[in-house]
Amino acid sequence: MIDLPLIWGLLIAFAVLAYVVLDGFDLGIGVLFPWLHKGSERDTAMNSVAPVWDGNETWLVLGGGGLFAVFPLAYAIVMPALYAPIIAMLLGLVFRGVAFEYRWRDAAHQRWWDVSFALGSIIAAFAQGIVLGAFVQGIEVSGRAYSGGWWDWLSPFSLLTGTALVIGYGFLGAAWLILKTEGSLREHAYRVALPLFVAVIVLIGAVSLWTPFLAPDIAERWFSRPNIFVLAPVPLLVGLLGFLLLRALRRRLDRQPFPLALGLFVLSYAGLGVSNYPYVVPRSVTIWQAAAPDSSLAFLLIGAALLLPLILGYTAYAYWVFRGKLKSGEGYH
Amino acid sequence: MSDGEIALLLARVQFGFTIAFHIIFPAFSIGLASYLAVLEGLWLKTGRDVYLRLFKYWIKIFAVAFAMGVVSGLVMSYQFGTNWSVFSDKAGPVIGPLMGYEVLTAFFLEAGFLGVMLFGMNRVGKGLHYFATLMVAFGTLLSAFWILSVNSWMQTPAGYSINDVGQFIPADWMAAIFNPSFPYRLVHMVLAAYLTTAFVVGAVGAYHLLLKPDRESARTMFSMAMWMAALVAPIQIIAGDFHGLNTLEHQPAKIAAMEGHYETRTGAPLILFGLPDDDEERTKYALEIPKLGSFILTHDLDGEVKGLKAWPADQRPPAAILFWSFRVMVGLGLAMAGIGLISLFLRWRRALYDARWFHWLALLMGPSGFVAVIAGWITTEVGRQPYTIYGLLTTAESRSPIAAPAVGTSLAAFVVVYLLVFGIGVLYIVRLMRQPPAALQQPVAAEEPIRTAGLMPGPAMGTAPTSETTT
Q: Predicted ipTM?
């Protein structure tokens, strides 16, 4: 018998990861926006993500919609539990999403939309980080419903993960700008990338050190044998990527920081995944308990198996069409 | 009201508010995406400048409307879980995968090709660009297909069974997707989207004709829009009638409320206007045409039509809302068909571009599609009450265990943000519409590649529009 809940657990995890790294860099542009010079730097930075942000954000819809479809119980527990940060994230995404178009439609109020873009991005990133932290902390459940309080999501740990994600996205955005732009914007991106990089490494370390103390079973999972041997390479790889990143930033190797930064995200994400498997609502509901019946999972899996490769294909094509460095002043608008 | 009842009401208002705002944009972008595909297709076929100019004109408006649709749609995909978690848990196994298919087939298709469609004209060849436009248009239709299947399943559930924890689980996917009201609702909504767009395009064309009667681009779009009105509005009336008969079969209480009937009667009148009063259980000040109600609904002058009293009071939808929202929709539909007819007459008399009174009329009718769409959705959604899944799961049972202050706060935030953000967006769209379609810039010398890095390096196909700069 095929373990459909497990397959779907991995697929949803993949969708969320795809969202984090893809929308991560375009949210990161928003995080960096206040520090970019008005005029051509901001124009070029925004143009570098304008053709792809919508597709990037669709992974978030797939994450949410997918959860609804295949783990409806988890969706029904997690959404009320994380009510406030989820609503804040959605409203942040509204403000930044429309700024992509509005900014070019109203020269007199462009500054407002720059603020809207930056603030919306930062709020969305921070809220996502809080969601992440609150999720890892664990969610209180009784019966088939959330049974915790309205402020459970707010904790020192979730504030830390919120901050970490804002900084992390900002770093990803800087790495993207290094890859995609030239001239003063590229220089500017290099200047902000280095302190952001240091902050990211510190924050990854802080979150990693804190996580096993959240719950005994995470600690046990991390430090018991044989897991510890499997997991030990993760911090080593983080160290390696950090070293390569530092080298790339120092030597101005434009093509390297972005993929390396993506690598850091993937590794951190894998660490979180290991901590929470096999829960879809940490330490309350497993993927098998939350799963819709196999007939639902199989039905959607057929579509996913056929369509996801296609989606990845034409997403890659869209990136390919807009590949290469974007010249300052070359706009799509 | 108890705290729970207030929270329920606020949650309903929140869903109604966010989805009413959202539907405006897809209703427009479904039609506009198809219109853009037609314009680009005509340009490729005939090579006439005017089609390219119109394409470039409407694509800017499309981009703004689409952005608003994306962000308001993103909110919708989380509304189910945040405020309706019990519904999500119970209905997820059936409607979740359908919405999953919407994301996989439609959203990614739209989003993937939108970038190429909006920004890629100079980067890919004509053929590929047209392909991207077609994919975006196809994506909007696919999206309508799945989301209307979900909505229809909530209205006329089929192909399900119920498991031991009370979840609806799929028993027959084909029966669930193609549930009894789905084909009617799909046709009705897609036609509504096309009509909505036609009347917007017609109003913009009329506006520019009023300013400058000999403007070719204005004439072309006005004429195209009026063809749509003349052809599609009558079809929509027929489709609406079929949809109504289907509703009578599956949700007779909804029809009774729409018609303002409380008593079950043979030879029921058609109540043109009146004030349905749920407390007194009668429609006051009714202006009636004898026997016509039975004739329309049963196609028999003496057919029996059920009244609301046939159901217990707590299983009836609120009649006054349905009665009036239905009349607004039907009234606008008839007005649209009327505009279409007049346009045919004027066209025959070769006066379509000269009848200024008619251009004023078309301008006035510009927002009619949006109003009709919202009125229609109010009719069908409020008509489903007091259930979320018709006859099976009540709205009151469906909501999340979230206290009224939390729901109220988020509702207030949505209202403020939406009115601000989308209000300004509509302003920008209107501002774009007030500009006439720009002339094309002098084509770049044909042998000069626009970008050597393009997938198909070559001359620009259309060059940039003049009214736009990157600053």
A: 0.83
